[in-house]
């Protein structure tokens, strides 16, 4: 439009024109003047999906898993540099990236004095020594960087005693032995992995006077029963006889010396004598080859040492164009026990490919998300989610106020059969939307969603048959985000066809056989499952960071609450009634939540049909984002460190309902009315009711009292 | 603009016009199209200031204080209806209003068996009985609704023993008596009000075996030494000889049976046997007339009873036009001990006048604030801030996420000399801005600000001489907002010229002499100080609810932190060094906070010069609003119920620095290095450093990692 042309006209025409200008300026509705707000761009989404490259993921994995990279090892630090280099790349990097380091307490076997498990004959002579290292079958199981199999945080000591087989080392296993008249005092308990947590085996054993614990991997649990060398890796994906699962035996998470404080050098550290959560007695993992050979008297020598080490997180960010103070946080840990091709490098390989594709669009100027995307590579996860936990302790308020959701991709591929997602209800919809649009790897033309529903499904009263999301425990770095900060979280992976294997987990988990070739040959040849996970995570991240309306559907919590309520009514109702405890207030609270969540959904639909102001949508999005926070109560479970989410805290009671209620009822069941245990049931019930009423209040129209 | 005129023109003209329309629509820059965002309107402010009417406040007060309105009494409920009627008035009401009721544990004297204090002669006969009621000097001290003077929550019991004068009932007072060889076991301690909290007198006494406690009001503390009937009310503002200060002797706040839970009927209630915080021994307040007469053996009979009562909060809201999910919360309690003309009705009279003026503008359509304004009338404050605390427990998350600031006006006028404001640093600026523009009552032409600075001032390194804000303890309903929720808060009142009186508080405080005439004749004839408080609160509320940029200046925290740091260095530095504890990390954290707060201030200034997008300003305002939250740590002081603010928790140590540090050092001082007490010093130091680092992190540009 050129003003010069206009100036050539006569005065009368100018007046008319002037009128027109005035009309044009004032009389045409405002709407046309404000450009459409930035929203999810399906073309960009398509581009990203197309550019996520299986072969690049494979090359990432090869590099990441080339050497063992135990937390705080030189190679772990090399990978910090690799991540920084990628995330600062001028062509495919992020807006900025940096590493931050914590000084944390880790546990290692002694290099000079390896841990030893010997069978001792009646005269005291050594009859058999267990393997100190795994057999070097591919050339990657040897060398100084392959850490000896050990139980991290197990105390050192050299107990000697009769061997007793104690199944999974659960409390009921030891009770059963006692019932059989077997004396446990001073024995060495041989237990197998699974059933209860690692540290719990030693805790349970010590209660019965056991002097030391061995933990082995049973071929029935991990190898579908196969155990001979020619049936196992490198001839199949199964664990060789010498393979030993390493792992942390610490009962909590985060740096053991700085609970609730970041492990920066200046932070107060608990005196070692006052640290709780370490296994109380020497403990050592072994392979099934050795487990088979064990007889009679056993001598276990554990020389583990605690060391203060520096461990880094690497963080990178793509700054949001419109709402930079809203974070979509996506992360995985970097440290492994040995080469860690599957755990965690299969996730990190995906992370790097996703940051490359998004970084390239960014650097080209093609795209910048509406909200900020934060990429994270956590340190020392294997020792107890340490890097992520310290990060949440350091930036508690900032993260809690601003984080839209946390996406975790740790082991990205366990196997090639199907997607598996764990998460809280508000993320269900965005995962469904994403997976319906991506083709499943393998033959046929199914979407990831349609394939997924064949393996994991449930009948939803609202939606009919849908894929079922698992719930989040504390198995990876999502734990501090959901349990401590109350941020809607999810964990994404590809996994097994359970009709084909009963392996507790992929067989070489935490052993020196978890290598690149293992992945390349057995787990995901062609890397199409890796690519599927990259696309799923990528689509979820784009939807969360770019959609004008946040795709978090809070009303999907109603189903969970209703099912918890029904379980409480069916399985605890009569018991509670006997003790004059009413579930009425809980019923009301659930109903109120359902009504408010549905009404909010209605308001969103109405608003979406109009052309809402960005500030209006921001206010609404805040309600969606912050709903998960309303379920936190830091005083609900004083004995459970970090766990504050009243819906997802650990459940020890058998009834699948609100965990505080389930646990308290299970403890009160055999006590008299009026006992402290029954008071705790009432307190837990009030905590849930207050949380649900508070949640409903945050969903109401914001100016309703 | 009429379209019909346009249609009459010829086609050529129409084309020209069309061009003009296009030009007008597209060629005039966008800026002109987006209207200036809603901001503080000085004309509206002026109108509000002018309409706040001293005489209406006086009439409010007359009605509010016409009858005693003890928490949960019928008259208290009548006032709930009065507030609802005012706030629902079609001409001067709010958008909506409602009452919500909690079932809370209160304590009352028995009507059948009044509490008794008798002097007993050597043979057991009663020599003298203390007054059971105050003398009916104005006709308002009699009648069934004037509650007998008593110590709320003191247990019942009838101890008899020798009277021992124990000064203020502080721990050192009892120690001093022991040093003098006075046997305390089984005695009745006579103490005077002041020095330590009410409940603390009984707690300290019981530790030394004292059987009962009397608390009297000393004329030296309250009456500038005057004590005869002709020198006291109704002849002056001083307390008559028979006046007795009532009060709650509960050590915590909130409903005693439902800590951390709202006292709704369904909530779990602690067993009475497990309630802590009640005075351990019978306690009774008396007047100085009786105190003077007390001799030898005394018999104290306390028949207080605990009762579950319904107590209501009344809430009203003016919905924000632009950001309805941001709340400016303004409140006062409603319940009194007797007529409560000063405490709390002087505040409620102001509250009603402010809601009337704003409500009228609202109903006329003249004005609607940018953010929501919430008015609150709290119940049962006198028993321990119960209504406000239960409210914060019920709506914890919603309030924490959305509340811009809390403004408390309890006793609005103690005396006519000067404004007095207690608050956290971020509210300093808005109070200064408001008070500079309002004329001070009384002779001369000073502003409230210029008058204020004559009475309370300090030398600020940043601003030079300024009025000094006091800090917030737990004296009124602001306590749960600042300490439990971390919401920037303030308490506003007019108060004494300290050169004219040394009265600990206005003399008829919590007695039956706190009546309308007392206020009308002695405290504020003409009600100009009430009006000044109404204008100050009104201007602060308008500025907080209407300003586009929130007038919370977070950099004003830097001065506080710096002064706490300097005190730590000067008064604790050497001691800490002896125990190898460095203040270095604290120095760094304070410096980082200062730098980030200053940089944020710069960014705001820059933005204010341009024409920022409302979303941009919202993001910035969120940083300002949420700063105070970053100082909360619910695990910092596990023994201090509700107190989570690491800068304002109760300080028992003598050094005026970070309270956790001060207290821990004071406890560790005489213990050896390596003691648990010194570990606690280090833990407290880490808690403060983590909070300050976290605060600085929230002030950084939001996309900086």
- Per CATH, the class of the largest domain in chain A reads Alpha Beta
Helical percent range of chain A? 25-40%
**CATH homology group of the largest domain in chain A:** Zn peptidases
Largest interface: A-B, 87 and 88 residues
Domain PA (chains A, B): 162-247
Cofactor (chains A, B): Zn(2+)
Family (chains A, B): Belongs to the peptidase M28 family. M28B subfamily.
Pfam family, one (chains A, B): PA
Descriptive account of the structure:
- 2 copies of one chain form a homodimer.
- The first copy, chain A, contains 22 helices and 18 strands.
- By secondary structure, the first copy, chain A, is an alpha/beta fold.
- Chain A has a 7-stranded mixed sheet with strand order 1-11-13-12-14-18-15, sandwiched between helices. The first copy, chain A, has a 7-stranded mixed sheet with strand order 3-2-10-5-6-7-9.
- In chain A, helix 10 packs across helix 17 and helix 21 (659-668) packs antiparallel against helix 22.
- The longest helix of chain A has 26 residues, at 584-609.
- Chain A is globular and about 90 Å long.
- The interface between A and B is large, with 87 and 88 residues.
């Amino acid at each position: 439009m050129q003003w010069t042309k206009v100036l050539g006209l006569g005065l009368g025409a100018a007046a008319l024109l002037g009128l027109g200008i005035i009309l044009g300026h004032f009389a045409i509705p405002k709407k046309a003047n404000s450009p459409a707000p930035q929203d999810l761009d399906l073309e960009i989404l398509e581009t990203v999906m197309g550019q996520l490259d299986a072969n690049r993921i494979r090359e990432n994995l090869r590099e990441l898993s080339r050497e063992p990279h135990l937390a705080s090892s030189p190679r772990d630090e090399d990978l910090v540099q690799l991540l920084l280099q990628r995330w600062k790349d001028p062509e495919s990097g992020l807006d900025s990236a940096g590493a931050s380091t914590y000084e944390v307490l880790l546990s290692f076997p002694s290099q000079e004095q390896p841990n030893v498990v010997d069978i001792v004959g009646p005269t005291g002579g050594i009859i058999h020594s267990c393997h100190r290292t795994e057999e070097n079958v591919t050339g990657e199981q040897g060398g100084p960087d392959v850490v000896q199999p050990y139980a991290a945080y197990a105390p050192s000591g050299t107990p000697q005693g009769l061997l007793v087989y104690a199944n999974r080392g659960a409390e009921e296993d030891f009770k059963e032995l006692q019932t059989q008249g077997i004396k446990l005092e001073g024995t060495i308990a041989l237990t197998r992995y699974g059933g209860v947590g690692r540290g719990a085996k030693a805790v349970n054993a010590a209660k019965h006077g056991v002097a030391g614990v061995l933990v082995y991997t049973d071929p029935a649990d991990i190898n579908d029963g196969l155990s001979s060398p020619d049936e196992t890796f490198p001839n199949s994906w199964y664990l060789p006889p010498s393979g030993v699962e390493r792992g942390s035996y610490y009962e909590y998470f985060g740096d053991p010396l700085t609970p609730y404080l970041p492990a920066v050098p200046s932070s107060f550290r608990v005196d070692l004598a006052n640290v709780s959560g370490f296994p109380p007695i020497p403990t050592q993992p072994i392979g099934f080859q050795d487990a088979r050979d064990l007889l009679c008297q056993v001598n276990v020598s554990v020389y583990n040492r605690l060391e203060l080490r520096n461990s880094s997180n690497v963080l990178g960010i793509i700054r949001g164009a419109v709402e930079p103070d809203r974070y979509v946080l996506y992360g995985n840990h970097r440290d492994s026990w040995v080469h860690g091709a599957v755990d965690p490098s299969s996730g990190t390989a995906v992370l790097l490919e996703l940051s490359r594709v998004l970084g390239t669009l960014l650097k080209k100027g093609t795209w910048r998300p509406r909200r900020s995307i934060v990429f994270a590579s956590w340190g020392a996860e294997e020792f107890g989610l340490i890097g992520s936990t310290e990060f949440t302790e350091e930036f508690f308020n900032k993260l809690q106020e601003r984080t839209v959701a946390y996406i975790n991709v740790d082991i990205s591929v366990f196997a090639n059969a199907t997607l598996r997602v764990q998460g809280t209800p508000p993320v269900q919809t965005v995962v469904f939307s994403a997976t319906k649009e991506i083709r499943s790897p393998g033959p046929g033309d199914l979407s990831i969603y349609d394939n997924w529903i064949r393996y994991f499904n449930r009948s939803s009263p609202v939606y009919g048959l849908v894929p079922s999301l698992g719930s989040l425990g504390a198995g990876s770095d999502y734990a501090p985000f959901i349990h401590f900060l109350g941020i809607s979280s999810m964990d994404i992976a590809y996994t097994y066809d359970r009709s084909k294997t009963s392996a507790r987990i992929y067989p070489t988990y935490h052993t020196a056989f978890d290598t690149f070739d293992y992945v390349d040959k057995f787990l995901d040849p062609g890397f199409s499952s890796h690519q599927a996970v990259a696309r799923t995570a990528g689509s979820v991240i784009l939807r969360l960071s770019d959609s004008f309306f946040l795709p978090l559907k809070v009303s999907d919590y109603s189903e969970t609450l209703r099912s918890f309520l029904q379980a409480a009514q069916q399985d605890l109702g009569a018991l509670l009634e006997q003790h004059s405890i009413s579930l009425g207030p809980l019923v009301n609270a659930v109903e109120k939540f359902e009504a408010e969540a549905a009404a909010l959904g209605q308001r969103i639909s109405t608003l979406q049909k109009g052309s809402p102001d960005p500030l209006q949508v921001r206010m609404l999005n805040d309600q969606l984002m912050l709903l998960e926070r309303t379920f936190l109560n830091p005083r609900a479970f004083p004995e459970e460190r970090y766990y504050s989410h009243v819906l997802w805290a650990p459940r020890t009671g058998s009834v699948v309902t609100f965990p505080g209620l389930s646990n308290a009822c299970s403890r009160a069941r055999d006590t008299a009315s009026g006992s402290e245990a029954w008071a705790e049931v009432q307190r837990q019930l009030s905590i849930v009711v207050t949380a649900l009423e508070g949640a409903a209040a945050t969903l109401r129209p914001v100016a309703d009292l």
